[in-house]
What we know:
The protein is of the alpha/beta class. It contains 15 helices and 17 strands. Strands 5-6-4-1-7-11-12-10 form an eight-stranded mixed beta sheet, sandwiched between helices. It has a five-stranded mixed beta sheet with strand order 14-13-15-16-17, with helices on both faces. The chain is globular and about 70 Å long. Residues 212-220 and 378-389 have low confidence and may be disordered.
Amino acid sequence: MTTNERLGLEDCRRIVIKIGSALLVDRKTGLKKAWLEAMCDDIAQLAAKGVEVLVVSSGAIAMGRTVLDLPSGALKLEESQAAAAVGQISLARAWSESLSRHDIVAGQILLTLGDTEERRRYLNARATISQLMKLKAIPVINENDTVATSEIRYGDNDRLAARVATMVGADMLVLLSDIDGLYTAPPHLDPEARFLDFIPAITPEIEAMAGGAASELSRGGMRTKIDAGKIATSAGCAMIIASGKVYNPLASIAKGVRHSLFAPSPEPVTARKTWIAGQLLPAGRLVIDEGAERALHTGKSLLPAGVRDIEGDFSRGDTVAILSLDGREIARGLAGYDAQEARQIAGKKSAEIADILGYSGRAAMVHRDDMVMTATRQTRSKTKDKIDA
Length: 389
């Protein structure tokens, strides 16, 4: 995909739209009903043209704290969960009523981190969402903040939306928030920051451009949007970051309002490897030497001989991150051994495994069929050259 080959929203088969809290909810007055109805007008127009639309909607806690008249500032965990319990009802009703104006049925789905990180639950969630789409209903998805805690939550809906997009095989992920796209630096801090309308690949230089959160109602910032982009684009899903402050933001994108488009990977990974790459919380980490790093970039498996250090307490089959000696993440994959056994054979030749463990195990610590590369070999890329040009 190039700047002259942009995929229009109407050309997509399936789109996931993420909506930030500040777009839907006013801190003092609650739901922005007129904005929501304009958004549903956009969704209805896409649906009428055969585009399948899924919505990842923030706003439950923001709505709940308004209804409960909770004070400004950070909430305690139990206050956030109570606000979410109240807000989820209001949010679901608002979406249902606004979409029903177009004779569209809404279906609410509340997910927790485990619903996308655990393989069986991931497949179950995907099946439910797929069935809703078959029935021509619009899935309205949010994190289940009534039960999620800091240890078991996404913490933002940008990455949740990316996981949903890869789960359903979407063509496009649209992140609507209070910023119109990616800049070379946070524009509110650097007046010389340049806007980037097209990002062919997410490189370390692109990641370094991410700033912090910009709104009290939002937990995410540009950092989480770039994280979402890595998840989505690696699976072959394009991504747009655009401002949702205007009415009919999707129609505005179609008319050419300024936004940043992230191109999908030209070599997307399979559905199973997409799930591996998108894991937000790897169970452990394997630090490898330079020789092993070179081998991985040529498509080979990770052998025990190349492993220099092991972190975490993981089981065979768990997702682990693979890092270089300087701490860069290179890949993710499914561990071929439990952490305890992995530590015993780390740095050893595969031929020594049977003598060390007492049985003939797998030759690879992580097999190439169970591995996804998450970083390119060169840190400087064509993307950096394009930006500097």
